[in-house]
Fold these 3 entries.
Entry 1:
Amino acid sequence: MSQAGRPLPDLEYADFAPFWQGTARGELRVPACVRCGRRQWPPRMACPACGGLDFAWSSIGDRGRLYSWTTIGRAMLPGFESEVPYTVVIVAAEADPRIRFVGRLDPAHEPPAHELPGIGDPLVAVFVPVEDVVLVYWRPDPGGPVPSAQEVQS
């Protein structure tokens, strides 16, 4: 358990270490197959498109569209009791809508339930330091280009 009173990501876990290195610099990074260029999230051992085994991590931008959400009303893990209710979101990345991040709305700016963003609404990543890790939260983004709802569903 961290000083924050809740579990935090393991920065040394090799499969996700490049992601957390990116968040420390204020960017979302995902692996792309060196052979065919297809991005994937979460990281896998082999490319689902061509079977390639080598990957290069790069920034995918900080914007996307709300793909789905749920509001958590009961803490399922120790350390989250003081944070409920909170909203967990799935965000389709603007640069590649096949890439979907699971996160939560920024607790510093989470709107009341009747004002939550709708499916397809634009969101922007917010990078928040907590102890030695930089977490990613999401906020509504009324500006900026985002993929169409059709792209999000493909």
Note: The helical segments are 17-24, 149-153.
Entry 2:
Amino acid sequence: MVFGGTRKREYKKSKKTPKAAKKQRRRNITQKKQTKEPIVMGKVYADWCGHCQRLKPEWEHMKTLLPKPRVIFVEINDQEKEQKIPELNAQHQVQMPMPSGYPTIFKIQKKQVHYYEGGRTASEMAKWAISGR
């Protein structure tokens, strides 16, 4: 409708109460977060490797810093790698080669494998897992 040269919008009244509308928005946000593809954070390690042994407490601490539903953790022992890595590749549709050194820290995000080459502290690894830096 036009009154005095200005346009006035006609609004339809919502049948939902403000509380119901707020709940629906929260539900929609939660569903969007849950449909986000998870990040797979993993390490390939060897029990005999000194670097792997030093990494273990930091790795365990890092796991507590990252949100569980958004990040899936994978740990592959060097004795299992011949079986587990092809399974991981098939499951996540990636081509991760066999690691040549230990520990090998990686993440699978958006069907790509990224290798970690930063510091071995829990906070640095957690930051890289989420932001990629």
Note: Strands lie at 2-3, 6-7, 39-45, 71-77, 104-109, 112-115.
Entry 3:
Amino acid sequence: MDKNILDKVKDFITAKFSAEEITAIKTEAAKFDVAPVVTAPAAPVTLKEAKTKDGKSISYDGELAAGTVVTILDPASQAVSPLPVGDYELEDGTKITVTEAGKIGVVTPVVVAAPVQEPVADMAKMSLQFSEQKQAFETKLSAYEKENKDIKNELAELKTSHGKLLTQFSKLLDTPIPVVTRTRSADVDISTLKGKEKYLAIKEMNS
């Protein structure tokens, strides 16, 4: 607007209204002097996807929790619509209940079973079992040692007997064999002989 015109309007107001009236007019005008509202840009929506165990594709914004908006994708038309009311189980085992179309009511997380721990055996019982096993082993070991000792003694006796036999056999080999001189039957009185000796003497005389 032209400055001259603004000056004329200002002079007119100053001439027609008192200082108090001008102050009142400014106060009332200030009520209508509203500063422009600056709207912050909306945060970008990042949808997360998941699949149910029966193959349905669902999307949700934010965390999978009660109150979260959830939609379902129609694979045929590729249209997105609010997830109908019902119970759904996701591939990871999480269960969601939609109590209002397109809004999660209850989320049941996967329950991971705690590893089963084997009961700790009673130490006194284990100690007793170990003691019994040790005693049984020592008993068997003692029996084996006695058996081994008996075998060694028998071997020693056999060795001694074998040595004696070898000594006797050696002496026998060293003993000279006596030479037997046969006497002709003619020089023997047959009447003094009996049995086989008499028979052999007569046979020799006739040969």
Note: Helices lie at 3-16, 19-31, 123-174, 195-205.
